[in-house]
Batch of 2 targets.
Target 1
Amino acid sequence: MSAAPEHAPTMARLSVGQRLGPYAPVLLLAAIMAIGHLAIPATSSWLTLTLSGLAMGMMIFIMASGLTLVFGLMDVINFGHGAFVSVGAFVGVSFLLLLEHMSGASSLTLNLTALMVAIVGAMAATGLMGWAFERVIVKPVYGHHLKQILVTMGGLIVVEQLIIVLWGPEEIYITRPESLKGAITFAGAALEKYRLVAVGIGIVVFLAMRWTLRRTKIGLIVRAGVENGEMVMALGYNLRLVFIGVFVAGSALAGLGGVLWGLYQEVVTAHMGNQTMILVFIVVIIGGLGSVEGCFIGALMVGLLQNYVAFLEPKAALISNIALMVAILMWRPMGMIPVVKAK
Amino acid sequence: MSDPILKLEGVFTNIAQYHILQGVDLTVPRGEVTMLLGRNGVGKTTTLRTIIGHWRAHQGRVLLDGTDITGLPTPQIARAGIGFVPEDMGIFADLTVEENMILAAVSGPIDQTRLQWLFTVFPALETFWKKDAGTLSGGQKQMLSIARAMIEERTLYLIDEPTKGLAPAIITTMARAIKELKAQGASILLVEQNFAVAKALGDSANVMDDGRMIWSGRMSELTEDTALQERLMGLSMEAH
């Protein structure tokens, strides 16, 4: 046995900027909240808007997290991701309508059971659909970005039309489960119960994803695969199989996002997934392709900014997130927490 | 000589419109360190990448222990017993040293005895065990890259320029690690530009030029024949 010679690295004191660098995205999120508080005079209004923004952000995160991993792992641009959101919403709403006696009852247990059934049903349906989508639509176009864009957009259109065939062309209005209607009052602010639940679900999903990615071997494979898929395969792991798993999980999460978004808007349409994709792509881009943490922080930023700006200057709400994306890309061209190297 | 662990027979590999390998024949004897030498851009890295399956051989055969592995998917080739250390080291910068090693142990949890042995070969790994691999120095990254390939026993190691750009002290560590691997009975195919290292480690040598193998023989023959070195590579090893 032989030992290596002493190899002492050179230590240099980092500047404040360098030390704060890794925390900059979180600090930026806090800054947006602080600026929002300064700009919105009434604390109660700020609290209401903040909760609304966080709830919106959590739902966007749930929809976007699968997309960012899919892109990071296999360099696949899936413009059809919105299809899973729409299908998830319609399947979830169908379950809720089927279980109206439970969701309309004045029992929290029955309400939550109905919601859970709707969520599990939607996730199962969109997960299965994701598997078929990957096999039939995505697999033939690996490595061809232009073809991926065209074929996945085509897939989205086909799915939207199938929704119209199955559920009809009209939007479906849905009422939330009885216990999730209304608001609670906190510090003079009306906080919608449903938004609190959405925030809770978002936090659970984020923590579960983070735990899976950081504490399990499959999570290690996914993280390593996002960074250097070729090397993961050279170690002996079948990354294609992992990718299918991630695609299915991402589709199921989009389905969950669809249910939550549908209940948030209290209406579902065949095009709702497509409409949310703009926000989803903004979040994926500003978060840094392949980064779940970046996606989470980016989604919260987008949700908060949209709500604050819509309150202060409604006409500017539409462009606020585009402006945020431009500003972040000028600051960090690869997104806030880049994982995937430039290809 | 016993059966070779690896044999390439007339391998052609094209990358886009470029014909990189043009009929490569190569034999890696079992339990030896086989050097793959040649100028930059002659196809050494492509040869390793073709063996591991990153590039597909368009013609010819790659035989591992007598089994044809040509065209098999990379994970299947790796699990057949090949450890690969790429030229760019391929470490996962966002993962810790520990996570890199856990990932490299494909067949299950890390064998603690083997890990302790690796710590004696590369003490820096133990020091930086919980650190992100991206924060390591170049030499430490290279140690991690090789240790990762060594964490489980393999029949063949493909190592691409492990001493490139490293300080002499680290090069000594790398050379020792490769010697220890060989002492354990492993076969190694080593691409190396540092002729002093090649001379010290190599049992046999293969010299490439323009995508073909232009010379194969014992390393000692090459090191002793200055004229041959000049003819094959346009320089003398003694100059290094």
Target 2
Amino acid sequence: MATKKYWKGLEELNKSPEFVQNANNEFAEQIPVEKFLGDNNLADNSGTNRRDFLKFLGFSVTAASLAACETPVNKAIPYVVKPEEITPGVANWYASTFHDGYDYAAVIVKTREGRPIKVEGNELSKVTMGGTSARVQASILSLYDSSRLTGPVTKSGETWNPSTWSNIDKEIGGKLAKATGGIRILTSTIISPSTKAVIADFAAKYPNTKHVTYDAVSYSGMAKANAQTFGQEVIPSYHFNHAEVIVGIGADFLANWLSPIEYANQYSKTRKVGKNKNKMSKHIQFESNLSLTGANADERVPVKVSEQGKVAVNLYNAVAKIVGGSTLPSSALACDAAIAKAAKELADNKGKSLVVSGSNDMNVQLVVNGINQLLDNYGKTIDIENPSYIRQGDDAAFAELVAEMASGKVGAIITYNTNPVYTAPASLKFAEAYNKVGVRISFADRADETASMAQYICPDHHYLESWNDYNPKKAHYSLAQPTITPLFAAQNSGTRQAQETLMVWSGNTSDYHSYIQKIWMERVYPMQGKYMNFTEFWNNSLHDGAIEVGKGGEVAAMPMTDSTKVVAPVVAEMKSDITPELIAVIKEIGKVDLSAAATAINAVKGGAIELALYEKVAIGNGNQGNNPWLHELPDPISKITWDNYITMSPEDMKEAGYKLMERQDRESSVLTLTSNGITVKLPVVPQPGQARGTVGIAVGYGRDKAGKLAERTGTVVGQNAYPFVQIMNGTMAYDSLSVTLANTNEITELAGTQIHHTMMGREIVKETILSEYQKNPKSGNHDEMLVTHAGIVKAADIDLWNEHERLGHKWGMTIDLNSCIGCGSCVVSCTAENNVAVVGKDQVMKTREMHWLRIDRYYSSDMTKDVAKETGEGAIQMYLDMENPSTQNPKVVFQPIMCQHCNHAPCETVCPVIATNHSSDGLNAMAYNRCVGTRYCANNCPFKVRRFNWFNYNENPDYTFNPTQDDLGRMVLNPDVVVRSRGVMEKCSMCIQRIQGGKLEAKKEERKLVDSDIKTACQQSCPTNAIWFGDLNDETSAITVLRKEDERNYFILEELGIKPTVSYLTKVRNADESVSVGKMPEGHEVKHEEAKSEKKEHA
Amino acid sequence: MDTICKQSKKHFLAIFSLLFLSFFLSINPVFAQDGEKIFKENCAVCHSMGKETVTGPGLEGVMKRVPSEEWLLKWIKNNDALIKSGDAYAVKINAFAESQMTTFTNLSDDEIKSVIAYIKAYVPPVKKVDNNAGGAAGAPSEEEGNPLTLLIGIIAFLIIIVAVLRGVRHSLKNLQNEKLGIPEIEKIGAWTEFKEWTRSNKTTTGVFVLFIVGGLVSAGWYALKDIGIYANPETKLEYNPEQPIAFSHKIHAGDNAINCQYCHSGVERSKTAGIPTVNVCMNCHRGISKGQSEAGTAEIAKIYDAAGWDPQAAKYNKPQKAIQWVKVHNLQDFVFFSHQQHVKVGKQECATCHGDLTTMTTAKQVQPLSMAWCIDCHRTTEVPGMKDNPYYESLHKKLAEKFKNLPKDQRKFTVDKMGGIECGKCHY
């Protein structure tokens, strides 16, 4: 059949010469350029000739530009009836509380014209002490999340239909009444007494109701251990501030463990040194992944996951040997020497030490309790009488519930503040069991993984739209109040507070606000003796936001129903001496058989590669998975944004032949990790300090139904690691002792903000050890010297320019590197305060992140100049080796870097349009509307803190994930700070809007400016108070006194003669040997650089 | 003699009392100046000086009505207490009042006395005939001769004359040619003739062209200066957009002497002075429903419409509507300007930037609000109260030290001396 031939025409048949010639041409006809240009007639006769064209062009350009000159008409629309408390242009602050079942923080909320724009810590809180974390700072953005549901929805088939509350209430009311089998309310930890009362009311109406508490990251094992040791299933309060030796075993207490903001604050108090305090706590950490806490430890010992329990047992034995006590069966460990050393430190500080473990294994926690009892720490650094209620999840009850659901015994389930379809261990098969429940109701604010499988979603208000009360710790209460009218406030079809919904279903028509007041009247008010009537008490509590009751010996009149079991209803005060109750408690110790626990721990068999799951500082348990600010916040340790990944020891990686990401390489090997039949595919990142034979993966990623972010960035961020969680001995284990890795031979790129990990032998971060510091407070902080014609002189003394005249204020900032834990709270705070754009993964990979403030993390390197001298290494090889961090167990330092506001700023001299210049009060100002974007300044900045705005992130359709692209998201913008557009340079302004505001208040009140008038955003958000800001021209300001008194004060790159305004305080480590991250040879190192700049006198 | 003596005594008394009175009066205005200020800030909102009732009764002849000055002082200070004390007159007038008067316990007796003195000494200004009293739409009261129209008229007139004369000349020339026997010249177009003329008078044409081009360029240059600027005093450009309600500042701030801050209450507390919300308007306009003209009444009705007020039923029973005012004084988004800084701390008068609003109907922009204008002012204005404000104490001392070596006329504590013209003070 193929012999048939079709001709294109007669030409082909005839094979005319023209055809043959043209057959090879793509275009059959020539473009008639010649003909057109050659035809004079055509040109003459055509209506448009060249001159006309130019005339029209000229006219239209002029006309268009003139038309564009018309000044726009702006509208000013005042309120019809202005709320009394609002003055346009003036911020109102309200005390409130953030709690999402995971993080707790007492906060104050800044509102402008009725919309919340910033969250700060509440300094009146005795729990969080005015600190915040990155997650708390970012929570403001989740209010303006357009992925939130705007009202109740019901499912019919696979589609969601909007409904009304009246319909929903009727329908669900009927179904609940008829529910066969039990009704279950599944929640994350609830620390709200009123919410618990609402649930109790609901249970009274429907007696077959049971409330199950489930935490995605559970501390159930700890509570169970305490039940055995003390007879109370509670989690104690910890007082890190009273501890002089802290030993952590896999507990990331500075970033995630229990109440990190509280502990970070307490911890920092023991770490600060100064003129009147030359002692600090010693912190030893045993862990597998390099956590934020481990990075801050004085001594860190990498141990395998399977060995963490054994470390506790061996530590118990080592302590028992010193203080006297029976030992437990144990097995030898490689780190026994370190354990013995830790034990000695602990025993030397009996009653002033603290051992904490991050394990959720009851046996390990029992042994840890044993150690603390041996050390006499109860009643001193651990307070079991004033328990913390921050985690109440019960793993066994949750597993039981899933089994019940699977067997069809549950008639209806209500989920509140929890997302088990996403977070539950794979082995439980939660989703399958969930589908077997007849009536599935969710209070989620969006159709998340669990809610999307429900039949009804009754969206809850955001916390900033809600009333609520909280009881994070015994005797500590705080209130949450609405700071905005609910955004989706339609009368019958908007969002509704979950508690109110439950109240309606249990037949209570009053509002939740008065319900809370009723509960407080009954329970909290009688516990205090300060106020004589309830209204006064309530108003003051609401104003203060957080209160502590029971101080001063008042007797609690009513038992609190929100604690699981209450033992001592007497005094809620921290005690330094032992009470009869405590003696009774301690007597019970003997009953607990620790040897059984130790035997069980010793029986744990490790694998070749063990997996330890962890929570990242930014994403945490994944609650705020749709928050772009958190995804853009670099992980403090890996400095990687927008991803989770497998962390692994570089040595293990070298053996396996994975890409090592050395020399600023972004490319990483993609692996598959399999454990218990579950597989994820993730890139692998070399993590110096990771225990060999272990890998780490962060939970909280891979949320495909978190909201619109995945759609806007084009991909779901990371992979879900929760399925790897296992149920062991009735509690969740966040590890897996036998995993297999396989290389997919795929390569992917990771968006790290810092791909250079060491200081290359320079002293950007200055460091010393405590014993040296005690001898000489200036140790580690030697002056930078320069060789000049006049001899060797201090770099600070040489000045090319004349000093500026500073008549008024002279702003200064000092950052204590000893207090900074690198948590990133300041970075998010800065983003919120200064309208910093989110740029996304692709742009971060091109080093175009916009953060005005970054936290540099440096590892120590095995190669130093000393080592090179010893081994005779050449300079080139030495510097190449210096780029590589120590793989085994590097020392880590953190250093927040923002614009240093140099007094002789290199950026200012190169700006061709004087867009950046110096103010009389010492700030390096940036006039965006003057900037033409040459980027000379960024080139000339030695700190690389100037960020160039490459795209119009506010409108460019490639960056829809930037909050400002969303009508709702835009509401978070700070109206006092301009939103920058494409083509300008941005940088830290030292929160000049706050400086101007603070000055103005003082001027108006006709008084001198004081320190508390101005706090920069980073300073205010810092949980460890590491940042000072103030007027250096004011002799009495804290910063002036500090700089004068503290000999740790130094300026980075002072030898360049740039005279920075920001200074740092040397980091002091309570370690034995001086392993400095930026190790220099001993003694004063003279910079052998030709001093080209000298003072005029020298010349 | 006796009578004379008596008369002279009478005269003497009269002269003496006159002298005394004049002496008293001569102090009185100084005294009443404070009274005027206090009156405008506190009383003018509700009380007019005439007969008409605003929210409270008009004050004309008030001194004759009240039992005594003492009584009036007590009444102003705390009318509530006076009513409760059972004072007969107080109870009586309270029975007539629609709403109770505010108490002024914050004012001292002396201050209230100064107000009473001001009321007593008040002389109503001579009423000027004012066409614009209604404030309707802020239309200019009379059409002044526009120079441009006049110019165009003259030019058109000249062109017509030239055209006519050309025709006449053509006819006359033809007539003469006919006489001389030269054949009739063909009538050529004006344009052709003009071209002919320019060719033969190249110098004159060149000069003309130069003038015209130069004029256009300079006009264009000045026009460019106004781009993006709503007002420019040099070119007499004033931005005066039409407002949804033809609110007359003249009637409120001028005739009725209401203090600016009564409506623009944010001026000392916030960065924005604030546009009064409708409920502020209603404070007075619940009682005042009639304007000074038909048009004025119609404008007041617009407030009722926005507030949802039914004047017949005297109730808020209709839906509220926001009034969309057109912003007159616009600053770019990248400029931070604070009213409280300038008014509260810098003690600037509103009129410095906003012009004399007591003579304007709807507000118009009279100052350019350009950066040059800001900076000029910052270079020349001394910071008032700097000496007495402890905030400036150390700065003032250091500046004074620095000024020691300068000639006296340069020792000025102007805003720019303390960093007031730096970028970062307004742009962030």
